[in-house]
Write a structure and sequence with these properties.
Layout: H1 2-6, H2 12-21, H3 24-31, E1 38-41, H4 48-54, E2 58-63, E3 66-74, H5 85-88, E4 92-94, H6 101-106, E5 113-116, H7 123-131, E6 137-142, H8 145-157, E7 163-167, E8 180-186, H9 200-204, H10 207-227, E9 228-238, H11 247-256, E10 260-263, E11 277-278, E12 281-282, E13 291-293, H12 295-298, E14 303-310
Parallel strand pairs: 5-6, 5-8, 6-7, 8-9
Antiparallel strand pairs: 1-3, 1-4, 2-3, 9-14, 10-14, 11-12, 13-14
Helix pairs in contact: 10-11
């Protein structure tokens, strides 16, 4: 991986854009560093205490913002967490630490009706199900038939019994007459927060792609608004660092739907100030309540999370 990182070249437009958003040298340096492995304990099948007893050959370091989350490292250098018995039995889910945040912000409770609009491969769906204790209903949707396979496998492995899987464009739900207590829109994005995991992200990045994705993201959140019950909660998240895909989408929701209110996300995590203006566009002042995380903030992926509540 170190050899591959040495060959990584950032496009001049990318460097210019990110130099205006963050400390470029720090961002560049951490983007080429190894991403720590992390897991989430699946409390539908095992308690945290029991899991720790089973995995005595692994060092588990608590993820500050998730009591079921741990950075994990084998005492003798083993790296294939996915080949462990605990993984096969569904006791753990290999999940990036920042990825655990959106379900925590959503706060789903047992008995509620929840939509995970872009669910595959299932990391957040299974986390939501554990929070709901398998009670209530989760509609886990995705558009990709290939990704649906991993979604189904992961849900079965983790013992999820309160979810159904659907395959369609998220925008198509608005014709189905369904209403939900909580909706997670973990939107398809440019993935610029995941460079540490995939250098391909840098190679395919371009501003036109970002604008195209932002257009789709607006459609998804508009659909989610229509499906959300009064007093319901919607969480919008991406693994992108692009303002157009993050604060720009939040600003769009707040400007278009006056009964949507931003909520603070109260987690023990280091965060960076949200972007209030980008390339001449000023965003809604309430984007200050969003959670923007650069990779260098917590030694994780870059992530963005926004929480809305619909008025009665």
């Amino acid at each position: 991986m170190a050899e591959e990182a040495s060959k990584l070249e950032f496009k001049p437009k990318f460097v210019d854009r990110y130099s205006a958003l963050t400390d470029w040298k720090t961002f560049e340096k951490i983007s080429m560093e190894y991403l720590r492995r992390s897991i989430r304990v699946n409390t539908l099948k095992i308690s945290v205490a029991e899991l720790k007893k089973r995995m005595k050959n692994w060092n588990l370091k608590q993820v500050m913002w998730c009591k079921e989350g741990f950075w994990i490292e084998h005492k003798e250098g083993r790296r294939d967490i996915g080949n462990t018995i605990e993984h096969s039995l569904g006791y753990i889910y290999v999940q990036e630490a920042a990825s655990m945040i959106p379900p925590l912000a959503l706060g789903a409770k047992p008995g509620e009706r929840v939509l995970d609009m872009c669910a595959a491969p299932g990391s957040k769906t299974t986390e939501i199900a554990a929070m709901m204790k398998n009670k209530g209903l989760i509609v886990a949707n995705d558009i990709s038939s290939d990704r649906m396979k991993s979604l189904g496998i992961n849900m079965e492995r983790c013992g999820i019994t309160n979810a159904i899987i659907t395959r369609m464009k998220g925008q198509q739900f608005k014709d189905k007459g369904l209403m939900f207590d909580r909706i997670l829109v973990d939107a398809p994005c440019s993935g610029t927060g995941t460079i540490r995991k995939s250098y391909k992200t840098v190679r395919i990045w371009n501003p036109i792609m970002v604008k195209r994705l932002a257009g789709m993201q607006k459609q998804l959140v508009e659909t989610a608004y229509l499906l959300l019950k009064p007093s319901g909660t919607m969480v919008y998240s991406t693994c992108s660092c692009e303002p157009e895909e993050n604060e720009g989408i939040v600003s769009h929701v707040l400007n278009k739907f006056k009964d949507m209110r931003m909520q603070n996300i109260l987690l023990d995590i280091k965060r960076s100030p949200p972007v209030l203006e980008f390339e001449g566009e000023k965003y809604h002042p309430d984007v200050r309540k969003c959670l923007r995380i650069w990779p260098q903030d917590n030694d994780t992926e870059g992530f963005f999370v926004a929480k809305f509540k619909k008025s009665k």
